[in-house]
Specification:
The complex is a heterodimer of chains A (357) and B (170).
Chain A lengths: L2 H17 L22 H19 L2 E4 L49 E4 L4 E10 L4 E8 L5 E9 L10 E3 L2 E14 L4 E9 L2 H6 L28 H5 L4 E6 L6 E5 L3 H9 L6 E5 L4 H12 L6 E9 L2 E8 L4 H11 L4 E5 L2 E2 L2
Parallel strand pairs in A: 5-8, 10-11, 13-14
Antiparallel strand pairs in A: 1-2, 3-4, 3-7, 3-15, 4-5, 6-7, 7-8, 9-10, 12-13
Helix pairs in contact in A: 2-7
Chain B lengths: L14 H24 L2 H15 L9 H28 L15 H9 L2 H12 L4 H8 L3 H24 L1
Helix pairs in contact in B: 1-2, 1-3, 2-3, 3-6, 4-7, 5-7, 6-7
Classes of the chains: A alpha+beta (357), B mainly alpha (170).
Chain lengths: 357, 170
């Protein structure tokens, strides 16, 4: 057993002992509701729900209907159209006049009820993931519980999966898995399934090309003083610093010497408060969003029921402050809605599956 | 989203009754996690109660109530720990308890060392290696990337070992 494993075993044992004191049953009644600090007003929720609902309409169909007047009837009164699964790109909807044609016997253009129908090809996606089959079917997993055998945290069900193409899989306790593979194929949003066209070992190029999200810039945005930054001696009083009014976030540079702290509001006041509790090298810079604002936005995203996020995090670096949410597939319409709701770039949606161009 | 020991509540009626049932079924896990995060059963119960109180008004709109509960517990426990730290700082000025080591039996110094870690490292170790949360759940609850969770894990274990070695070595 390694040192880490032994330490973890001892820690688990102590925490188990500690938790022996947890009562088996809760108090008789659940607690009354309280609002968390910074809870959004209900009107904001209504607006967000409306935006989300509109987005669902926009992204749910794979058929794009063009040339329709703004005053035209809602989509449920439009002529029925077929889906990509049974329609080739050149097909048009039965009963709908193709573009450029006219009514026989006249020279007039087609009436305004004529619409163009463009059908998307099924989009291919590529990604890196772990395939795990615990006996209930193979899943392409993007977050894995590192037990033995591993368990799938979040992932998609693989359709028509075969282990025949994989020669490095492991089997333990009825579970078959392969730690990391490249997969290209089709994603079904509704069913949360993935049909692989190609699977192979991961290359360095894959890792670079399929990286998710923006790597934070933890450089020091202040000029280095003459003679260099002083050595760091004091422990960072993180809790106290984060309690200073307007606090947005902080990080230490690569040399572990300089703490950069971002605040919203009067920087001189913030720096004075900071200097009272920390005397080593600091770089104080302006932020647009406080940590509390970002946490509130994170909470709002978590409460949205119409989209499944794989993870949601808040980030503060030399370039800005934002909330990053990982989705299965790209969500450009939702991104636009979030930009409008929270401000451009405050919420950044990143996708686990990358469209193949 | 993740493997969970919390009960499925899809088949439960709407409204307060639905929340009451969820509360009763999820309560013990919630208190266990909060106890691990705070290092104290009573504090764990308080944290769990506050977390349930916070999610109650939103419960009807939550698709992932388990995930929301997890994040709320981690955040409430963080706030609770800050208040506790301030109190401990005042107490340590007048009381310095002796460290006793009993390697054959219990290891209270291990929990003490765990409690001294930065909160994100402590939470990562407790939730990952004891509560068996996956990386994504921990990342979401802490508001960081999964890679940062791995970093907290490495650093937390190293710091815990250093702390224990220091105490054993005197």
């Amino acid at each position: 057993m390694s040192n880490d494993e032994e330490l973890i075993r001892r820690m688990r044992l102590e925490l188990d002992r500690l938790a022996e004191g947890v009562p088996a049953a809760p108090p008789q009644k659940a607690p009354a509701a309280i609002s968390s600090p910074g809870s959004p007003p209900s009107r904001r929720w209504v607006a967000l729900a409306a935006a989300a609902a509109a987005v669902v309409v926009l992204v749910a169909g794979l058929v794009v209907v063009a040339g329709r007047d703004d005053d035209a009837a809602p989509s449920d009164t439009l002529p029925a159209v077929t889906t990509p699964s049974d329609t080739s790109p050149s097909d048009t909807t039965p009963g709908v006049t193709p573009p450029g044609s006219s009514i026989p016997g006249t020279t007039e253009p087609a009436p305004s009820t004529t619409i163009d129908v463009v059908v998307d090809e099924p989009q291919e996606y590529e990604t890196i993931g772990t395939v795990i089959d615990d006996g209930t079917g193979a899943r392409l997993c993007f977050d894995v519980l590192e037990s033995l055998p591993p368990q799938c945290g979040t992932g998609v069900t693989l359709i028509d999966w075969s282990w025949d193409a994989i020669d490095v899989e492991r089997v333990e306790g009825g579970t078959t898995w392969v730690d990391s593979i490249y997969a290209r194929g089709h994603f079904d949003r509704q069913a949360n399934t993935f049909t692989a066209i190609e699977v192979r070992p991961v290359t360095d190029d894959d890792v670079e090309r399929l990286a998710i999200g923006t790597e934070p810039d933890f450089s020091v945005p202040c000029a280095e003083p003459e003679g260099g930054w002083p050595a760091r001696n004091q422990e960072w009083p993180g809790d106290e610093v984060s309690a200073i009014d307007g606090y947005a976030g902080a990080w230490v540079d690569e040399s572990q010497q300089v703490m950069t702290v971002k605040f919203v509001g009067d920087l001189a006041v913030a720096e004075t408060a900071l200097r009272e509790i920390y005397s080593d090298a600091v770089c104080v810079v302006a932020a647009e969003h406080t940590a509390a604002e970002l946490a509130d936005i994170q909470g709002q995203l978590m409460a949205i029921s119409s989209i499944q996020f794989l993870s949601i995090g808040t980030y503060v670096d030399a370039t800005g402050e934002w909330v990053e949410a990982r989705t299965f597939a790209p969500e450009p319409e939702r991104q636009a809605a979030f930009d409008e709701q929270f401000g451009p770039g405050v919420v950044r949606l990143v996708s686990q599956l990358h469209p193949v161009s | 989203v993740v493997s969970s020991t919390l009960a499925d509540v899809d088949d439960i009626d709407d409204g307060d009754d639905r929340f009451e049932r969820y509360y009763r079924r999820a309560w013990r896990d919630a208190v266990r996690w909060a106890t691990g995060l705070t290092g104290d059963v009573s504090a764990g119960e308080d944290v769990a109660q506050e977390a349930f109180a916070r999610i109650r008004p939103r419960f009807g709109t939550l698709d992932n109530a388990d995930g929301y509960l997890r994040t709320t517990i981690v955040n409430v426990a963080r706030d609770s720990r800050r208040a506790e730290q301030r109190r401990n700082v005042r107490e340590l000025r007048v009381v310095r308890p002796e460290q006793t080591i009993d390697p054959g039996e219990r290891e209270p110094q291990l929990l003490t060392a765990l409690s001294r870690l930065p909160y994100d490292q402590r939470a990562t170790l407790v939730l990952r290696y004891w509560a068996d949360w996956d990386e994504a759940s921990i990342a979401t609850a802490l508001g960081c990337r999964p890679s940062t969770v791995r970093s907290h894990s490495r650093r937390g274990l190293a710091a815990l070992r250093r702390s224990l070695d220091t105490e054993v070595g005197g």
